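Consortium newsletter contribution from the modelling node. Members have asked for a concrete example of what our holo predictions look like. Here is one, prepared for the NAP complex that several groups have been discussing at recent meetings.
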Amino acid sequence: MQAPTTTMTDGRDLPLIGLGTYPMDDAEAAEAVRCALDIGYRLVDTAASYGNEAGVGQGIAMSDVPRDEVVVTTKLRGEHQGYEATLRAFGESRQRLGVEYVDLYLIHWPLPRLDLYVDSWKAMIKLRDDGLVNSLGVSNFMPEQITRLVDETGVGPVVNQIELHPHFVQEDMRAFDAEHGIVTEGWQPLARKTDLLSQPEITEIAERHSVTPGQVVLRWHVQSGVVPIPKSGNPQRQRENLDVFGFVLSEAEMARVADRAQVRGGGEPDTHEEF
Ligand SMILES: NC(=O)c1ccc[n+]([C@@H]2O[C@H](COP(=O)([O-])OP(=O)(O)OC[C@H]3O[C@@H](n4cnc5c(N)ncnc54)[C@H](OP(=O)(O)O)[C@@H]3O)[C@@H](O)[C@H]2O)c1
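And here is the predicted structure:
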């Protein structure tokens, strides 16, 4: 079982579902990643700030899946923004992961107060030009910040990973990303801090399709053109979360899934201080 892929503007393929790994520790991440890859996942999401890059790397090494079939994503943490600091931090991430190259490297948060994300981006372009990173992306970026990256470097991100779930559908940001050929990845896709999965609208649709509430929500992401990265350390739920390509939600069901109060659950991109 594998997710289909989409082709990013840099010509690389990205699976339509990935595995999140926050807040796993190294041991949990190693086992979860090994298991997920053997089930069929080919996209894995970690970050320097999760403290589990070594575990993620061990999981990749332990699985039977060849390294070049896995899209390994990691992220630059706030305290390492800036040109030289980004180069150093990337080297440390690469070492912890135990990989020759990283497939997708993201700036974790823009931290506009520091005003270093353009310098960080320039370092990331060098890493790509040096063959150490395949694809460059951002996370939690707003339109004006992406526009600035393009204006000042001529290079735009191929991915923007943002908070996205039926309680926070981010229509404007998704439209901006789509207009600029940027793939939107959705973090916290199952809205883990809410009771979304037990809401009657979701459970009714799940019963109708003989699937689980989690599958309904992940199918909603895929049909919305979003790449979700659900976290699970449980093999059964990992399998379930990848198995959403055998049914289709009607237009009315799509609308019903997202017909709820819109509330951001995590940090505000313009002010969130992630170090
Ligand atoms: N870029 C950013 O700023 C940012 C911020 C937050 C997160 N992320 C990334 O996004 C990933 C996903 O977000 P998240 O982990 O916060 O939330 P999430 O994926 O929405 O939810 C994960 C939670 O749901 C449970 N779960 C998983 N599949 C399920 C299913 N089918 N049915 C019921 N429960 C299920 C998991 O428990 P079990 O493990 O027990 O299955 C876990 O407690 C993170 O792991 C991380 O990689 C990025």
